[in-house]
Amino acid sequence: MARCLFQARDLRDAERKDIAKRIDPSAKRLAEKLAFAHTFEAVDSEMLDTMLKARWVKHFRTRKLESDRATPTSWLAPFRLIAACKILAFPLRLKHLWSLNFMRPYFSNKNKRDTFFFLTHEYYLSRAFTLAQRVDCAINHYSFEGQNYGPAYHRSVYQSPRGLALWHRVVDGTSYSINLRATEDNRYEGDLSVLCFANDTRVCRVSFSYVDGSLFGLPPERTMFVTRNQTDRNPELQRFRDSFKQNSPPYFCLASVCGIAMANGMRAIFMVKDDAQIAYQKRYAQGFRNSYSALWEAFGAQEIDDRRAYWMSIPPKLTPVSIVKHKNRAVTRRTNWLEIAMSTRHAMLEDRTSWAPPPIDGEALALLRPAHKELR
Fold this sequence. Notes:
single chain
């Protein structure tokens, strides 16, 4: 009996300290429950007791490994918990985020749970974002999807292995497709990924998240932030280049991103600057420059001063075909982009539940008569 009284007193004192620090006790309990339910379920009881020695861990751990041994990456769990607890500084944001119920579809694969991925890693979306901005980005992304897309979209993007089909074409017996799905590996590099496949082999990935334009000093409205561009080096990549002369998978994926923006009525989107990409390393500076900033600039994007990001209008402003040296080549290339953009737009509108702002329509023809540098 006395032991219970002491425990109740300790709990009351702890809550008083939290209140003094302006931490909502109910939000803290919720954060503890989420953190342990999702971050620690892959860690066995002996490791938890030894490393943390925290009595309350046992109350929220949902399961232990069947093998009764830690996984190769389970030693990261305590550090991820510590990082996840940063959200306690934002109790109202935490409640808002949890109300979106975004974790259930993403974490249907219980072996890859990382609930607070926007906090547990060193960066989220950009090296330039503060902790508060990272939390806001997660809220903006999942609230936008919840408000604008229905169950068919969510089933395809979050539960289907291939995702939502955006475009498909067969060339010389080879099947090419572009799909949209929740990022399955490094989600902190972009919540959604546009994937380009050749005969079921991925050749490119471009990832993005829905964010608020105020991040970049512009009026507060929802937009897209493109944060990852990765080409897969495999035999199918050369097959793609043989089928689509003077083109490359990132161009196709970026055209699809434009189609998504058109479906959502977004007049401009943003792209991460090369040295703000979260995997950036100075020794590979030129490679990052070519894969990010140089690609954005080729599509007419303009750098935003002091924001480590680029701004690109939708549709993008490319060089007018009339002044391009290789006109036929440019028209063929841009015809592919237009086909992809319009197919993507159509696919996204199939299950869009909100039509405000209205989707961008005929202006897509600007893809064929665009105003800046040419893609050679």
